[in-house]
């Protein structure tokens, strides 16, 4: 077996969040479960209707559960920014479809919407 090349620890790559537009910002580790707090890496401030600029209006938490990997259930709590268009008042959230699009044709990734 070839000698492995070690690099600095990276929780995003360990949890296969690379390319999903999420980054881990915190952790809550218990003996029986783990919760990783995440943020969305791609800003999404432009209105889908009029292309006006959105103003952040708080966050919502989207929970995603990992497919079985090891013995400790792990859940992502993704803080998703909500925006309100300053021109037409439309409201939207940052796009997290890459992170939990299992079930869609061609989708990949270990995360799925969590229940509860
Ligand atoms: Zn608008």
From TrEMBL:
Residues 95-116 are annotated as: Disordered. Residues 95-104 have a biased composition (Basic and acidic residues). It comes from the Bacteria. This is Transposase family protein.
